[in-house]
Amino acid sequence: MKRLLTTLTVTVLLALSGCAQGGGGEIAISSGGQIDATDSGFKLNSTVIYGSYTRPTYHNLTVYLLTANGTAIATEHIGTLEEGRHPRVTMQTDRNPKYVIVNSPEFWEYDEISVRYWENVVSPDNPNGVYADRVVSSQDEFPVEVPPNSTNTDSR
């Protein structure tokens, strides 16, 4: 079986302006690791880390693997990101999600913010897709509802 392995370094970028609460400045949260999309499924192995000197605490971080219509393939609560604590996430499924989104309700407490998520883009050269980063500045701008409306996961 032909196996196509796509490995990416993944980055979640969270930018806060000077008028945002928590001292302002710019904050980047990098999720360094791998996203592998193959014929046999999907694997994410990553650590969420800070990307700047400003380091507020974010609670209730969750990673969502979602279909194109927003159905959860899998979710993983990864806890709190704070100085000295960088949560790890390892997820594996038998299918490639359309979207990989890291979210916390606390992200949206800031006036100006940019959050990166990943979308699987399929092409003739990459039938399993390549994860391209996208940016939103409010939770309503995600292409699907986050968190998913239903707690049911897609069994396919």
Amino-to-carboxy terminus distance: 21 Å
* Helical percentage: under 10%
**CATH domain class name of one domain:** Mainly Beta
How many DSSP E strands? Answer: 8
SS-based class: mainly beta
Q: What is the strand arrangement across the widest sheet?
A: 4-3-6-7-8
Strand content: 35-45%
Query: Please, how many helices?
Result: 0
CATH topology category name of one domain: Immunoglobulin-like
Given as residue ranges, the uncertain stretches (5+ residues, pLDDT < 50) are: 1-28
Q: What is the quaternary state of this protein? A: single chain
CATH architecture of one domain: Sandwich
Provide the succession of SSEs.
EEEEEEEE
What does this structure look like?
This protein is an all-beta fold. It has a domain at 29-136: Immunoglobulin-like, CATH 2.60.40. Helix content is 0%, strand content 45%. It has no helices and 8 strands. It has strands spanning 29-38, 41-50, 58-66, 72-81, 88-93, 99-103, 115-123, 126-136. The radius of gyration is 15 Å and the shape is globular. The model is unreliable at 1-28 (pLDDT under 50).
What is the structure about, briefly put?
This protein is mainly β. 0% of the residues lie in helices and 45% in strands.
Tell me the layout of helices and strands.
Layout: E1 29-38, E2 41-50, E3 58-66, E4 72-81, E5 88-93, E6 99-103, E7 115-123, E8 126-136
Antiparallel strand pairs: 1-2, 2-5, 3-4, 3-6, 6-7, 7-8
What key attributes describe this structure?
single chain; 156 residues; mainly beta; Immunoglobulin-like; 5-stranded antiparallel sheet; 3-stranded antiparallel sheet; 8 strands
